[in-house]
């Protein structure tokens, strides 16, 4: 495994200790003057893609930690640069399938999976060389908190939505895979301090077990873990985060 840290959330550089991992590579993004959030995301994704591609070319599975689901595109782009064509298994409490037209908040993180599968390419994929993943090559695991526009889109989309417990070799796309895990897929009662907590989700072990089932196939070429939690000085919260991050960094 190669551990890559991209300590950014919506263009904000996070404190070094906010994602508690001893990284092999720490990504630095240098934003042009006046860059908007889309441009900042593209710069960060491009910076992520290079070490991901190097790891995949070397036969290693990179595990990328960031503060933002939008940066998963950099992980996928890196696998593509290494000659892979992965499908995506997207673990998230939310749908992340909004567009600029459907979002009521304008929060770009809520569009992360949709732009990965081809929406707004001029603002996202084209800006850092991502080939959008075909919607049928993406599976959304959990997504228990959907806005009406997201539910309507998924009802007619080739992107399938399944419970975490059903994630297995026969319910995910064939061939190479990138796993994306937004930590908020885990029940908010087990993982306090999240920016956008959602109760009623799967346990930490259920999510880790689902990921482990996929890793065991040998088809996972990269993993992206988004850690959208708030800074905390609470010792118990930090220990929970440490354990979660260490499991992913160790390959589960």
UniProtKB/TrEMBL annotation:
<dbReference type="GO" id="GO:0030145">
    <property type="term" value="F:manganese ion binding"/>
</dbReference>
<dbReference type="GO" id="GO:0004053">
    <property type="term" value="F:arginase activity"/>
</dbReference>
<protein>
    <submittedName>
        <fullName>Arginase</fullName>
        <ecNumber>3.5.3.1</ecNumber>
    </submittedName>
</protein>
<keyword id="KW-0479">Metal-binding</keyword>
<dbReference type="InterPro" id="IPR023696">
    <property type="entry name" value="Ureohydrolase_dom_sf"/>
</dbReference>
<dbReference type="GO" id="GO:0005737">
    <property type="term" value="C:cytoplasm"/>
</dbReference>
<dbReference type="InterPro" id="IPR006035">
    <property type="entry name" value="Ureohydrolase"/>
</dbReference>
<dbReference type="Pfam" id="PF00491">
    <property type="entry name" value="Arginase"/>
</dbReference>
<keyword id="KW-0464">Manganese</keyword>
<keyword id="KW-0378">Hydrolase</keyword>
<comment type="similarity">
    <text>Belongs to the arginase family.</text>
</comment>
């Amino acid at each position: 495994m190669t551990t890559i840290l991209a300590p950014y959330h919506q263009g904000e550089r996070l404190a070094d200790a906010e994602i508690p991992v001893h990284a092999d590579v720490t990504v630095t993004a240098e934003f042009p003057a006046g860059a908007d959030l889309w441009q900042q995301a593209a710069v960060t994704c491009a910076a992520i893609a290079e070490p991901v591609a190097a790891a995949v070319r070397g036969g290693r599975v990179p595990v990328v930690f960031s503060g933002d689901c939008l940066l998963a595109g950099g992980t996928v782009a890196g696998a593509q640069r290494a000659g892979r064509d992965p499908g995506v298994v997207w673990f998230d409490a939310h749908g992340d399938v909004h567009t600029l037209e459907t979002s009521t908040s304008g929060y770009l993180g809520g569009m992360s999976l949709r732009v990965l599968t081809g929406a707004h390419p001029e603002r996202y994929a084209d800006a850092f060389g991502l080939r959008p993943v075909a919607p049928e090559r993406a599976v959304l695991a959990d997504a228990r908190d959907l806005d009406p526009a997201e539910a309507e889109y998924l009802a007619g989309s080739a992107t399938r939505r399944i419970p975490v417990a059903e994630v297995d070799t026969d319910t995910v796309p064939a061939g190479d895979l990138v796993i994306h895990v937004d930590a908020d897929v885990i029940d908010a009662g087990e993982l306090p301090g999240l920016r956008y907590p959602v109760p009623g989700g799967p346990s930490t072990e259920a999510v880790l077990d689902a990921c482990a089932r996929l890793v065991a196939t040998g088809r996972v070429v990269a993993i992206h873990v988004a850690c959208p939690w708030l800074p905390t000085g609470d010792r118990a919260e930090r220990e929970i985060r440490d354990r979660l991050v260490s499991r992913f960094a160790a390959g589960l």
